[in-house]
Amino acid sequence: MLHLTGALSSAETERRSVRPTPSTSISARSVSKAFRLPHQKYTTVRERVIHPFSSGSSEVLPALRDVTFDIRSGEFLGIVGKNGSGKSTLLRCLSGIYRVDAGEITVQGRLAPFIELGVGFNEELTARDNVIINAVMLGLTPSEARRRFEEVIAFAELEDYVDLKLKNYSSGMVARLAFSVTLQVDADVLVFDEVLAVGDVAFEWKCYEQFRRLRREGRTVLLVSHDMEAIEGFCDRVLLLHEGELVDVGEPAEVVREYRRLAENPNVRLGRPRARRDQVPPSPDKSSGPVAFGGDFRRFLTLTWTLAAANFKLRYLDSALSYFWAVMRPLAMFGVLYLFFTEVGRFDNGVEHYPAYLLTALVLWTYFNQATQTATHSLVQSAPLLRKVAVPRGVIPISVALTSLFDLCMNLVAVLVFLFALGVEPRLSWLEMPLLIAILTVLVSGVAMLLSALYVRFRDMNQIWLVMTQALFYATPIFYVVASLPDSVQEAALANPLAALFTEMRHALIDPGAPSAAAAIGGDVRLVLPFLIVTGVLALGVWVLRRASPVVAENL
C-alpha cells in the first residue's frame, strides 16, 4: 500500500479547518433496496406462454435496510463496510442508477457518479474521442469537452499518445485518462467508488491534491474506499454499513475503529445479507430511479447524438470499404430481386422506372430492418454502462436508430445517382422525401424502444421480430407496387404504414403519374389510419420503455 502520510496529514489539517455549511446536499430517509432471486426465471415469451399463471417462488436478498442519513453541502463523506455490506448499492441508489424499494432520496444540485472509471470508453477510438464521449456522459456539453481536452491530456500525462487507440494503452494509462476526465465535471456532488489507485506514486500524489482542490471549492464528495488511511485523512465524517444496515456514522477515527472491529471479529458473518424465501421487495414509495428520457431534453439529444456519432465513426473509421459494403448490401439485394422479378415474375409490367422504385424501396426497408434488429439488443449490450451511469435509458435505442439514419442518408446519395442515371427528372415533389423519412424515423424509433425494452425481459424477442420482419417484407410493396394489387386489397394493404410511405415515395420521387397514398387508399381521411398506427407504435414504445427503465439495470 502506498503511504502518503504527508499528503494525508495536509488533507486532515485542511479538513479540520473547514467548517461545513449547514445546508443539506443529500437526504436519505428510510431507504431500502432488495433484489429478487427467482428459483425459476422465465426469460422467453415461449416459457411465459407455456406457464401463463406461474409467478414462481423466489428469494429476496436485502441489500439496504432502512438507511437514513444527511450529507451537508461541502462535506467530504466516507462510506466503509465489508464486501457485501451494501456500499455500491447505496451509491447506485443515490446516483439514480437503481430505484429504491422504499424510502426517499433527495439530492440538491447535480450529482456525478464515478462507480467505475472510464465507463463508456471504447478501445477502438482514440483518446480524443473517448474523452469527449465520457465527458458528455458525465454532464459536459461537447463544446466544453473539446475545450477542456488539452487540460485532461496534460493532467493524465498522455500528450505523446493522443492519436493512439485506447487498445494500445496500458491499464494505468487508461485509468489516468479516466480520472482526468472526472476532474472536469462541474457537478455539485461527486461520488467516487474505489477510484484512488490510478497510477504510479507520483500520479497518486496528484490525485490526492485534486481531492484537496475539491474540498477548497466546496464540493460535496462521497468516497467509498477500503483505504482507511485515505478515509481518515480526507473525510469529515464516515458512514459504516454492515449487512445492509447503517450501524455507525461520525468522526472518521471512531468509525474506522468500529469497521476494523467488525472486520476482525470472527463471529461476525461475512458476505451479503441472508436471502429470505418467498418474499418480494416492497413496492417503491416514490419512483426516483432511472428514467427513460429525463427532464433535460437538451441533454437527452446531446447524449443521443454523441453516441450515434461515435457508433457511426466506429463503423466507417478505418476503411472506405466499410461504406462500400454498407451501400453494396441493398444494391446486391436489388440486383437479385430485379433479375428475378423482371425476368421471371414480370412485376415491372406497367411500372414506370421500376428499377428506381425497387432500389429506393430496398434502401428504405434496409434502414427500417437494420435499425430495429440492432436496437433489439441495444440495452442488453449496454449493460456495463447502464449499471454505472444514470443515463436516460431511451438514449440507447434512439442512438442506434439515429446511427442507421446516418447510413440511410449515405445510401440515398447512391440512390440519387442511380435515379439521374435512369433519367428520372427532379421535381418539387421531391421535397416530400424529408417528411416521409421523418415519419419512417418516428416508426423506427417507436419499434426500437419497444423491442429493446421487451428484450431485457424476453430474450427470444429478437427471433420473434425476425419472423415478423420476414412477413412484413412481403406485406410491404417493395418488389411490387400497390397499384398491382386488386382494388379490394389495396385499402387493407395500405393500413401498413410502410406500404403507405413507399406508395407516396413512388408518387413523389419517381413517377408523378402513379397514384399517391391518399388516392390508393381511397381518400385523405382513410390515410389517417396508417399514421395513427405510427403514432400508436411510438406511444407504445415510449410507455413500455418508461415502465421498464427503473429496473433495467437490475434485470440486465
Structure description:
The protein has 556 residues and is α/β, with parallel strands linked by helices. The protein has a domain at 297-555. It contains 23 helices and 10 strands. Strands 5-6-7-3-8-9 form a 6-stranded mixed beta sheet, with helices on both faces. Strands 4-1-2-10 form a 4-stranded antiparallel beta sheet, with helices on one face. Strand 8 and strand 9 form a beta hairpin. Helix 1 packs parallel to helix 8 and helix 11 (297-316) crosses helix 16 (395-421). The radius of gyration is 28 Å and the shape is elongated. Residues 1-11, 13-21, 270-281 and 283-287 have low confidence and may be disordered.
Average pLDDT reading: 82
Please give the count of helices.
23
Note the gap between the termini: 35 Å
Unreliable sequence segments: 1-11, 13-21, 270-281, 283-287
Strand order across the biggest sheet? 5-6-7-3-8-9
Helix % is 40-55%
Radius of gyration: 28 Å
The major sheet is characterized as: 6 strands, mixed
Beta-strand share of residues: 5-15%
DSSP strand tally: 10
Described by the principal axes of the CA atoms, the overall outline is elongated
User: Which structural class best describes the helix and strand composition?
Assistant: alpha/beta
